[in-house]
């Protein structure tokens, strides 16, 4: 699972392959927490994340929604997604 961005101790990754399920999503990791975020809603689908880090991921996803959707298309076709600028 390639890392597509990292910021403030948060790692953002996306699985590869046609077996990936809808809705379009990515995975965020922070310390011992992990959560799956819906790209279109910019919200947690499942898992847990501290409130502050969850809000940071949601803000980042909102800023990079088009890039995330393009990466989703690449990833579901088995292609490596590109890196996305971190939140600053």
| Proportion in β-strands | 25-35%
Q: Kindly, what is the distance between the CA atoms of the first and last residues, rounded to a whole number of angstroms?
A: 24 Å
Number of strands: 5
The assigned structural class equals: alpha+beta
Give me the number of helical elements. 2
Topology pattern, helix = H, strand = E: EEEEEHH
Model regions low in confidence, pLDDT < 50 over at least 5 residues = none
* Shape field: globular
Specify the helix fraction band: 25-40%
What is the strand arrangement across the widest sheet?
Answer: 1-2-3-4-5
What characterizes the major β-sheet?
A: 5 strands, antiparallel
Walk me through this protein's architecture.
There is one protein chain. The chain has one domain. A five-stranded antiparallel beta sheet has the order 1-2-3-4-5, with helices on one face. 28% of the residues lie in helices and 31% in strands. It contains two helices and five strands; from the N terminus they run βββββαα. It is globular, with a radius of gyration of 12 Å. The chain has 88 residues and is of the alpha+beta class. A hairpin with a 4-residue loop joins strand 4 (33-38) and strand 5.
SSE blueprint and pairings:
Elements lengths: L2 E5 L2 E4 L11 E6 L2 E6 L4 E6 L2 H13 L1 H12 L12
Antiparallel strand pairs: 1-2, 2-3, 3-4, 4-5
Provide a compact summary of the structure.
With 88 residues, this protein is an alpha+beta fold. 28% of the residues lie in helices and 31% in strands. It has one domain (3-76).
């Amino acid at each position: 699972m390639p890392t597509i961005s990292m910021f403030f101790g948060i790692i953002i990754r996306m699985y590869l392959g046609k077996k990936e399920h809808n809705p379009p999503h990515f995975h965020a990791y922070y310390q011992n927490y992990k959560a799956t975020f819906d790209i279109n809603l910019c919200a947690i689908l499942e898992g847990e994340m501290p409130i502050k880090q969850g809000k940071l991921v949601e803000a980042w996803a909102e800023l990079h929604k088009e890039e995330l959707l393009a990466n989703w298309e690449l990833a579901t076709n088995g292609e490596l997604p590109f890196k996305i600028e971190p939140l600053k």
